């Protein structure tokens, strides 16, 4: 189970890194950009809801809530706070190694549900940035400096962009 926890934590860190690349330097008007479907701020609110849901499942009290989007920069903060809370629930402290807090959800189901969904939405945000006239730079994510536990907005600079 510890390997699965670490894999989930690495995946959440990779998601945080990729989300940062999709969100950084986005103009404030990007939040309301509409081409079809959800606006970026609605997508981001949904992503926060996904990690609130993931946390509730990991804690054994599954609940879903559709949040009304906050103003853009507040929604960005809520998203990262939700990621950090979920990551903290997966974290094993030195004291917990002898008797770790159980995850009350199947790690594979957490991955295939909320985490994979959020990864898809990061791609949507990147695509919408391009459509809105504010594209992000391409990057080789294979060499990115992604580290377990690094789930906030403060991410390392890209190593190889194109």
Shape: globular
Q: Please name the CATH topology.
A: Four Helix Bundle (Hemerythrin (Met), subunit A)
Helix coverage percent: 40-55%
What's the number of domains? 1
**H and E order:** HHHH
Q: How would a textbook summarize the main sheet?
A: none
Strand content: under 5%
Report on this structure.
The chain has helices at 2-23, 40-58, 72-90, 107-131. Helix 1 runs antiparallel to helix 3 and helix 2 packs antiparallel against helix 4. It has a single domain, classed as Up-down Bundle (Four Helix Bundle (Hemerythrin (Met), subunit A)). 52% of the residues lie in helices and 0% in strands. By secondary structure, the chain is mainly α.
Compose a concise summary of this entry.
By secondary structure, the protein is mainly α. The protein has helices at 2-23, 40-58, 72-90, 107-131. Helix content is 52%, strand content 0%.
List keywords for this structure.
mainly alpha; globular; 162 residues; Four Helix Bundle (Hemerythrin (Met), subunit A)
Which secondary structure elements does this structure contain, and how are they paired or packed?
Blueprint: H1 2-23, H2 40-58, H3 72-90, H4 107-131
Helix pairs in contact: 1-3, 1-4, 2-3, 2-4
